[in-house]
Structure formats: C-alpha cells, structure tokens
Amino acid sequence: MGRPIKKTFFGNFGASSGGVGGEGVASVAAVTGLSTMTNSGAFIILAADITAPQITGGTKPVLTFSTSSVSAGTVTVVSSGTGYLSAPTVTVRGSLAGGGGTATPAATLTSTRPNAIAFNAYLTTGTTGVANGDILKQEASRRYLVRNSEGTGQCKLLTTSILTTGTMNIVATDYNGSTYYVQKLTARKAVLVQSTVSTAFLVGTGVATGWTLGAATGTVVTIANTI
C-alpha cells in the first residue's frame, strides 16, 4: 500500500484521554466582580457552567474556584478536557463560596497538542455518519480501524459525502480553496477525487499529490484536521 501514514496523525491524546482531537483548557483568568463571599477553600465549578467542546466525543475540563477576597478569586485547572476548537465560556458563581454574583473569566486553550487527521465515519455498529474521532490503525491505503462517539470498527475510504455502514471519508483542500475526497493515502502522497471547485482545481481526479496538515502550497493539498 506504500509507506503508511505516521501514527502521530491518528489522534491527539491516546486512549487514556479519549482521543478525538482538539485542545483542552490550559488556564482561566482571575475572577472578579463577585460579592460578599464568606467561605474559603476550593470549590468545583459545575460542568453545566462550562460550555461543551465542539468535537464529538470531547470532554469538559474539571475546574475549581478558590476565593482570594470577598469578591475575587482564582480558577485552577484540575484536568484540561478534550475536543475544543475554541475556548469555552466558564461561568463562576459567587454562590459556590457563600456569596452572590457571577463572572465569566476568559479561558485559554492549550496549543501543544498535535494535529490529527479529521474524517467522517459510519461504523457498522453505528446509526449515522459521525464527524471526527481517532484513527487507531491504518490497515491498508483505503481501510482504517477508527473510533468515534459510536464505537470502534473498520471503515473503507469513500469519495463521496454519502456514507454507508463501514465507510468513511477524508477531505483535502488545495491552494485555490477547491476540495477533494481522498481516495488513497500514504505517508507522502494522496490520491484525490475532485469535489467542489473554487476558482479552479489544481489536482486532477485520480492524481497522486503531496499532502500536509499545514497550509496548502502549490499542488500540495492540506488534509482536513483537528487541532
């Protein structure tokens, strides 16, 4: 099948944190504007007060709030979460520490997690096509073992948006902004099928070209990915 793609492109975190790609929360700004808090200590911020990650299968971070005065405090990241493409909104309630008011300190995402190939897959055990997840193993240039929010299974690459059970697709974009479905993928080359044209297609259907997870340049296409 040619040299397989690097495993570093399969998923961001490994099995221990669920994969799925995306970033977690690295830090949260200081909290001000609360009122008359009387209790001290570390209080867990409710999961309902943290907006959800954008990637299916991602997890919310675990955050605690500690008071530094009757109206202010700090947030500590206990676990960063997974699957965020943009920072969540975090709401801190003064009632956690016996006070009043709410604050929404800005959260900052991690930036060290490697990109992972994005795909849509319809598992044989699933009910529909699901965006994103993790490639666990490349079994052939057109067949992968994948995991998403509906489970784990083998999927074969299709060059269409309409998926049937046991299939998946991967999208590439050229320098002009035209898109392609990936028909075959190896470590250095992608064989493409034209999908939607922008100003012009730069790569012909059935042609092998270079690929990257970074910006497209010339005829080197960028493979859709999660950060």
Give a quick precis of the structure.
The protein is an all-beta fold. It folds into two domains: 121 residues, no CATH class; 88 residues. The protein contains no helices and 20 strands.
> How many E strands?
20
Helix content: under 10%
Low-confidence stretches: 13-17
Mean pLDDT: 89
Q: Which strand order do you get reading across the main beta sheet? A: 10-9-14-13-12-11
What is the count of helical runs? 0
What does this structure look like?
The chain has 227 residues and is an all-beta fold. The chain folds into 2 domains: 7-15 and 115-226, no CATH class; 22-109. The chain is built from no helices and 20 strands. Mean pLDDT is 89; it is low at 13-17.
Topology:
Blueprint: E1 25-28, E2 42-44, E3 62-67, E4 73-79, E5 92-93, E6 102-103, E7 107-109, E8 116-117, E9 120-122, E10 130-131, E11 134-140, E12 143-148, E13 151-157, E14 167-169, E15 171-173, E16 179-185, E17 189-196, E18 208-212, E19 221-223, E20 225-226
Parallel strand pairs: 13-14, 18-19
Antiparallel strand pairs: 1-7, 2-3, 3-4, 5-6, 8-20, 9-10, 9-14, 11-12, 12-13, 15-16, 15-19, 16-17, 17-18
